[in-house]
Design a protein that fits this description.
With about 475 residues, the chain is α/β, with parallel strands linked by helices. It is built from 15 helices and 17 strands. The longest helix is centred in the last third of the chain and has 21 residues. The protein has a five-stranded mixed β-sheet with strand order 8-7-6-9-12.
């Protein structure tokens, strides 16, 4: 592959804890401006085909094949294609325009290529061989998108369950009113026997059920990729062998619903539920939801209040173009969102803030210590959350290149306490300094403290639709 050259852009706001942060938002804007100023730009289209023949199209521009600056295209396009894949999803990438760029991407996503992990992952999700096609710009397929309504049901007696990587949350909701909520520490990523996961989830479901006269429906917010209530891929079950995953994990929530009497069930990605929670709380649409917990979850509710069917796996979206930035252990790539918007981000910054933590502690325990320091006004902890806020401000502008949103709702374990407020303020500071046009129309929201932690489980409870026949049957059961 050709040597990759990049155009470095200096942020106006730099944290002492990460002076080498190279925001994707600035790098991409600088690149596109260089293309425009050169007079050597040509259009390029990137298509992504996913399930049911749906196709997303992204328009951009690059240096022409004959330009002396052509090599500057490689970093921009490689990072852009990866970003589009993890935001929109797809088993097929179509490059419309430069054949040299198309061949570069094809090599990157081949066996042994730098993006081999991403290609294999997408192939597994969509159950098709991952491919990269290169076509003439004028022969690109037409865009074909779809969206659907999600949740917002409040009738009946509902259980909402939120499966996180360090804790799980459950809520009992009767006619839209929360009557019980519980948060429990668990360690799903450390267990290879799916019986552990099943029993722990069922314990939370039964605890919630004990606070209601009956259960009419169960809604689940789960980390990972969910299709038709089936778990396709999820880091929660990372230790479970593949054969057991197929037999015991893929239908884990469906089987729990059956044990509870076959009541209506709806399972959604935790990011989409975050966006739904924001839309319901704000009474508005065009919401991007970000949950900062064990990882970074993302979700999006469009102008019509629907979800798009995009992947929205923001944990793997590149947000830092510094090639020496922290590597994500799973994908093997650098600068991905998981290391900037999760408890990993806090832990990453701890030594740079001059804080020493016992390495034997779990990530959740380390985060709790830093949050306790924050509550006592320790400036070292303040710096950590402020730095994450700077990350968020620059990355908000990056996300705005791919989503049409006017609200960001940020919640999750990392956002708890005063640290969450500092993150939000620092992010708004970046928008004002670097992206005033975005600062005017995008607002960053935090739910109240209790909802920061349990908001997803409450929103999850609204996912299933209950028909009157089922509601009547469940009522009769409870009376008998």
């Amino acid at each position: 592959m050709p040597n990759v050259v990049n155009i470095k852009s200096e942020p106006k706001i730099i944290s002492d804890l990460d002076k080498n942060f190279r925001p994707a938002s600035l790098e991409n804007r600088r690149f596109l401006k260089s293309v425009d100023d050169s007079g050597e730009g040509i259009p390029l289209m990137i298509g992504l085909e996913r399930n049911d023949g749906l196709i997303s199209i992204y328009h951009t521009r690059v240096f022409s094949d004959k330009s002396k600056n052509f090599n500057l295209n490689y970093t921009y396009i490689e990072r852009l294609v990866k970003t589009l894949l993890w935001i929109r999803g797809g088993w097929r990438v179509i490059i419309g325009g430069s054949k040299k760029i198309g061949d570069y991407i094809k090599a990157a996503y081949s066996d042994g290529g730098v993006r081999e992990f991403d290609a294999r992952f997408m192939g597994k999700v969509y159950e098709k061989p991952f491919t990269v096609d290169v076509v003439d710009y004028n022969k690109m397929p037409s865009e074909k998108e779809d969206s659907k309504a999600i949740g917002r049901h409040t009738d009946g007696c509902r259980i909402g369950f939120d499966a996180g990587g360090s804790d799980r949350k459950v809520s009992s909701v009767i006619e839209g009113e929360v009557v019980f909520s519980e948060e429990t520490i668990w360690h799903p990523k450390l267990h290879s026997d799916p019986k552990y996961h099943y029993n722990e989830i069922m314990a939370s479901i039964k605890a919630a059920a004990s606070h209601m006269p009956r259960v009419d429906a169960i809604g689940v917010s789960s980390a990972g990729i969910i299709v038709d209530n089936k778990v396709k891929v999820s880091s929660l079950f990372i230790k479970v062998p593949e054969d057991l995953f197929e037999k015991k994990v893929k239908d884990i929530y469906i089987n729990i619903s059956k044990e509870m009497g076959g009541i209506p069930l709806e399972v959604a990605n935790d990011g989409d539920v975050t966006a739904l929670a924001g839309s319901m709380e704000l009474g508005d649409n065009r919401v991007l939801g970000i949950a900062m917990g064990t990882s970074e979850a993302g979700g999006y509710v469009d102008a019509n209040g629907n979800i798009t069917g995009w992947l929205n796996e923001l944990a793997f979206v590149p947000v830092d173009y510094n090639p020496r930035s922290m590597i994500d252990e799973w994908s093997g790539d650098f600068g991905c969102g998981v290391k900037y918007f999760s408890q990993d981000a806090v832990i990453k910054l701890v030594p740079f803030a001059g804080i020493s933590l016992d390495e034997a502690l779990s990530p959740a325990e380390k985060l709790k210590i830093v949050q306790d320091m924050m509550s006592k006004g320790d400036m070292r902890a303040v710096k950590i959350f402020e730095t994450i806020g700077y990350y968020l401000g620059y990355t908000t502008a990056h996300y705005a290149d791919f989503y049409d949103f006017r609200h960001i709702l940020v919640l999750g374990r990392v956002m708890s306490g005063e640290g969450g407020n500092i993150i939000a303020k620092a992010a708004q500071k970046v928008l004002k300094a670097e992206f005033p046009e975005l600062e005017e129309r995008i607002k960053i929201h935090l739910p109240d403290e209790s909802k920061r932690r349990i908001g997803q489980s409450v929103a999850a409870a609204s996912l299933p639709e209950i028909d009157n026949k089922n509601k009547s049957r469940q009522r009769q059961k409870s009376e008998n």
